[in-house]
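Sequence in, structure out. First:
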Amino acid sequence: MLTEWFQNIEFAYSWVLGALLLLPILIYEYIRRNKRQQASLLVTTTHFLKGSTSFKTIFRHLPFVLRCIAIVFLIIALARPREKFTETQTSGQGIDIILCFDISGSMTEKDFTPDRLEASKQVAANFVKNRPGDEIGIVIFSNLSFTLCPLTTDHDAILNQITNIESGYLQDEGTAIGSGIATSVDRLRSSKTKSKIIILLTDGVDFGGTIPPDLALQMAKYYGIKIYTIGVGSEKDVDEVVDSPLGPVVQHKKLQFNEPLLKKLADETGGQYFHATDNDALVKIYQSINQLEKSKIDVTTYNRYTDKFLPLLIAAFSFLLIEIVLRYTVFKKFP
């Protein structure tokens, strides 16, 4: 609880906290003086005083401890702790963006680390973080397409949904690129912004679905939507371990990739086609899109503070008052 308090607190006069370094000196001086103290009455032996330990002797250092606690609270209070609230206000023209994810079985191929889909999710999440003020939505597709998140400026909700994307979420296998684009267009067609884009991320092998890619392409062109296509993977041979009646065996297979389709979708809508062959290339692609599609957004940040020193000040004077009362009553010294 104390850790959480300090995480949300900043000090207006943080240099005052340096006074806490005087506390060890104060404690050292107290110990040194306490050892040098001598009794007012000198006796030849203390044998008869054995077993005379009392409440006062056990707790004789309590007033000093209370004074140290009071000093600590007072110094922290003088540093003026305050809670910071940050508010942001955006103005200008943003871009409406639909992230269209292929979640078919082919997106689990291991030519990326850890696989195509997981690598795509990680990079897409970073892209979202760099688009303040833009409305962003998520569409996923395999044989079917589904709006996972409508257009929103709540980027925390978007990031949460990206994290939850998994292959097989829609159960039916296939790669219905046309359906994915059509659903994305449906989410953007009523948008009032001048710039509307779809970022389609797939391996580009289209089969299944009820809407062919050519029809979805015409829909995007009609509503003035640009499509940026990212081809994930490559046509190369890989070894895959599969189960067989004789146990796990290594199977040689060729990864599929349809580059011409993705180029056509991008070229005819005014977007661009990119080919990602590994994680680093995927990062650079999203950075390129981020530069190509700039939002005219002004973000104004306001900081509001609430002082939190009063409870500490009350605590400091309370401990000091208790220390004074105890010192002149219970622990009062007589000459």
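Second:
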Amino acid sequence: MLKSRHIIFALAGAMITASCSDDNYQLYSDPDEFGLNPVAIVADADGGDYELIVSGTADWSATFGETNSSVDGWCTLSQESGKGYTKVSVKVTPSSSFTKRRSMMLEFTSGGKKLKCRVLQGTQVLGENEVLINGNVWSTVNVDAPGTFCTSPDQIGKLYQFNRNQPWEFVSNPEGWSSAYTNDGTDWLPANDPSPEGWRVPTANEMAALWEIGATWVTKAQTGFELPGIVVGVDEATAQMVTKENCRALGAMFLPQSGWINSDGVLDRTWLVAVRTSTSLSPTHGGMSLGDSGGYHDIWGWGDGQKERAAMIRPVKIINIED
């Protein structure tokens, strides 16, 4: 079903005014001779089909003008030529950007006259438990059982060994514990990723870039979270203002103090924040970001990222970032 849109005159007027000098916008044309309605389409972030009416009696043709998106075919027409009165479907694909509004100029020509329609698409909206940092959408909560999220940022959730989707409870000697498994040195494979659908374990580069913006230890008294931990993704001054209520609004992410389960099945280094990444650093080591209250940071986990150790996962959303 086509979506009809009543364009707000102020928006259309602003777009037309901004485009007059460069695009030679024709503000009015006799619809009985050659007309185009509407002159602007505001598309939803999820995309869809929008109706554009070409009026008149003569032959007409359409072309695609300038666009600010590198994505091919994000805006298409049901037909690019015709004669007389025609209802054209403008198909818009879902946006993959949380920061950039796609724009496309459609140009229609008939009898030496040119009319234009601007298609403008809104950005995606972050979900309740999502935060945008470094161009990536991060979950504000950890992975719990495979395919599920924790309900709060201060919950550790389940712990996972490298490239395995076997969940382990955050206890010493969890039932069924085994550190014996084969890993051939590959990165974390999608088939073994315990993240919920549409999410994945972040790479070492993604996690390192996140921590490099800022990694600040915070206490329960400051934040109101049930555990101390590290605030990442913002500078120290901003991190010092973080509370349970405003963390996401400040563009920050809280990682709870946790540690890991070692190869013997025992909870170890529980004074650390320890987060798994999907990058294989060697046949026996995988990326693990670490930090403590004394300012110690081991972003890459060269010394402590042994693959048989189980640690928490903070996933990143699978999206295609537009330039």
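Remark: The chain has a mean pLDDT of 88.
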